[in-house]
Prior knowledge:
Elements: H1 2-25, E1 30-35, H2 51-65, E2 72-77, E3 88-92, E4 96-99, H3 103-115
Parallel strand pairs: 1-2
Antiparallel strand pairs: 1-3, 3-4
Helix pairs in contact: 2-3
Amino acid sequence: MVLAKTFSSRLCFARDVFRGALKFMSYYQQHVFFCTNLRDNARKSCQQCDAQAARDYVKQRCKTLFPDPHAIRINSAGCLNRCKRGPVLVIYPQGVWYRYDNQRDLDDIIDQHLQKGEVVERLLLPASVTS
């Protein structure tokens, strides 16, 4: 009985530590990374499609929509190695990858995914696409 109680209390302690770690791992509710890489060779890169301007647009719009500084973070990233169908972005913690062509696509990602939690199927990047 004592052994079971000790094991049970250790298990509960481990569970509580794990839950606490998860709380700290999710500093932002959603974290968006835009590939803004510019390659110096002939291969396609996201910055050739003005990815920095797209990131700036989404960041400004999200600042207006989400006043809580921990709700959403918009960041630039170096090469995410998926430029072939780019420009691309990825949203964590879900790990959803999107490609976009214009402001309408970005607005759909903001309105549907970031605000409503719905995946924008038409913009999903296939798992097999790499640089």
